[in-house]
């Protein structure tokens, strides 16, 4: 994203599982990580006062220790944290007609970041682009200012790269699987509700599982029962040429008769998983959406046991969202997905989703 005046580039992690965007910030910095660009440096006039409505909505019972500023602290499920103050600055956004718009948006100036147990705040990004449902989310702010509708979508390519869009201009008009957004028992997540899990079109016999979509999670996490059922079904159907092996990358891995270079070499040895949300709303999870090949040439399961992270719900993470457009439509209260290539080509994005 290009932020500030003049606009400077920042790399942000796309996170549909949280509401407050933030940049590592020199205010001055107490604990910041090595990042691709110079830390964001706020000027006094950019600092959001404690009485501002977005400050109140972020923490309604906040006592204003320092009226001139709005302090925040966020803790993520992997124990990573960000501490800082709210600021407002210009974001320069590209529109479909190649023009640009400048939006003055509120976000966090994080001067103290602690890395979680998965090393969530990586050196590859300058901060976080939070696209949750809350009023402080950039998506809600863009809607509030009349710039876009409260719709966001992303498409991550298995080859790296992809695209992100705000508004509903490029949402396909047909072939999208839509489900109503459901309320979740834990947090204000985007959820398609409870789904029944199938492996190779056979029910795994576990009770319907509450699912959330979270692009801030690299891997997919299942609660204990569906995780164990998935692992058992996978192991039962494996060819003799694959042997279980220890690999530091992930908990469950296999080696072949030769070193694997990509998932495409091994995907025929595995079957698809399916999540059925009822009324013909099925998400297929083919092997390339749950397997990874490590640098050691082994193939590993990219679905992890969520109970280790004390999660009671099931998270569909980036690995499972690859090569499909995922649409979060807060205007109509629905979530959608459609398979297609997420690699950007000179042809228009839409031609990849006929």
Automatic annotation (TrEMBL):
Pfam families: TAXi_C, TAXi_N. The active site is at residues 15, 214. Residues 1-338 form the Peptidase A1 domain. One of its GO terms (biological process) is proteolysis. GO terms for molecular function: aspartic-type endopeptidase activity. Keywords: Aspartyl protease, Hydrolase, Protease, Repeat, Signal. SUPFAM superfamilies: Acid proteases. Belongs to the peptidase A1 family. This is Aspartic proteinase Asp1. It comes from Aegilops tauschii subsp. strangulata (Goatgrass). The lineage of its organism: Eukaryota, Viridiplantae, Streptophyta, Embryophyta, Tracheophyta.
């Amino acid at each position: 994203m290009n932020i500030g005046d003049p606009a400077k580039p920042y790399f942000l992690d796309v996170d549909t599982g949280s509401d407050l965007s933030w940049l590592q910030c020199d205010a001055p910095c107490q604990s910041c990580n090595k990042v691709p660009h110079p830390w964001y440096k706020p000027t006094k006039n950019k600092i959001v006062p404690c009485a501002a409505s977005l400050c109140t909505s972020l923490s309604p019972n906040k006592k204003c220790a320092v009226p001139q500023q709005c302090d925040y602290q966020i803790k993520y499920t992997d124990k990573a944290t960000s501490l800082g103050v709210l600021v407002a600055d210009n974001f320069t956004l590209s529109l479909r007609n190649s023009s640009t718009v400048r939006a003055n948006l509120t976000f966090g100036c994080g001067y103290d970041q602690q890395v979680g147990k998965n090393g969530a705040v990586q050196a590859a990004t300058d901060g976080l682009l939070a696209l949750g449902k809350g009023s402080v989310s950039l998506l809600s702010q863009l809607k509030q200012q009349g710039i876009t509708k409260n719709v966001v979508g992303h498409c991550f390519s298995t080859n790296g790269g992809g695209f992100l869009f705000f508004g509903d201009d490029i949402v396909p008009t047909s072939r999208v699987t839509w489900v109503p957004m459901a309320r979740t028992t834990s947090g204000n997540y985007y959820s398609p509700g409870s789904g029944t899990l199938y492996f190779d079109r056979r029910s795994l016999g576990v009770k319907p599982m509450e699912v959330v979509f979270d692009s801030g999670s690299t891997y997919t996490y299942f609660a204990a029962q569906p995780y164990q059922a998935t692992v058992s079904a996978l192991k039962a159907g494996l060819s003799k040429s694959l042997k279980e092996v220890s690999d530091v990358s992930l908990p469950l891995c296999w080696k072949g008769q030769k070193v694997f270079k990509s998932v495409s070499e091994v995907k025929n040895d595995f079957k698809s998983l399916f999540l059925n949300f009822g009324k013909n709303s099925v998400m297929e999870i083919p092997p390339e959406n749950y397997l990874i090949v490590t640098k050691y040439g082994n193939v590993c399961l990219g679905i992890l046991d969520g109970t280790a992270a004390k999660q009671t719900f099931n998270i569909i993470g980036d690995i499972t969202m690859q090569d499909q457009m995922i649409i979060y439509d807060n205007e109509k209260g629905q979530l959608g997905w459609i398979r297609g290539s997420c690699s950007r080509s000179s042809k228009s994005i839409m031609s990849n989703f006929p």
